[in-house]
Please model this.
Amino acid sequence: MPPATLAEAARERRDIVTGEVMDEERLIRFVAGPEGVVTPDVARKLPGRGLWVAADRASVETAAKKGLFSRAAKAKLTAPADLADQVADLLTRRLLAGLGLARRAGELLLGFEKVSTALRGGKVAVLVEALDGAADGRGKLLSVARKVQPAPIVIGLFTSGELGLALGAENVVHSACLAGRTADRWTFDARRLSGFRPLFPESWREEP
Model:
């Protein structure tokens, strides 16, 4: 899963729903899969003509319901009813897999103290907190994250067990991706995913 470069993210495509030309980082690519079924291509690597839709749930659902994929492809295509959910699931798994890449690249920190120090130094691009972690430690790190500029993206999509499995570690609660190429790819995917599901529980906004 190669990281997206800034040059790749800067390319422009036309959204088949609105007709607007926009950067790829704001779009999801789809292709016609086997038997004419519309297939998400979040990595933008599958063969075939790309059909581009704005990276949000409403746009994908509109394209599916109104037959806009068929119109753009000039061919009969079938868009699954759960197409937006498929995109969200693929992007979520892509983010989780990216943690392993960040760790192997030496760009991932684990543990409260290391993450806290990096946050205060303005070195963190993405803060990843376990869904089932204690509110106390999470609240302290979120408080620091809100005060630094540029503020890191906060991800709260995975349990400690899921994070540990992805990283081959135990009790992973607090982790942070340092600014760099891996973080750029993470940010690219996280922004697209935010159009389909919240990146962390709404209740976290209320924590001190």
Remarks:
- The helical segments are 6-9, 57-65, 68-73, 83-104, 112-120, 135-147, 160-167, 181-193.
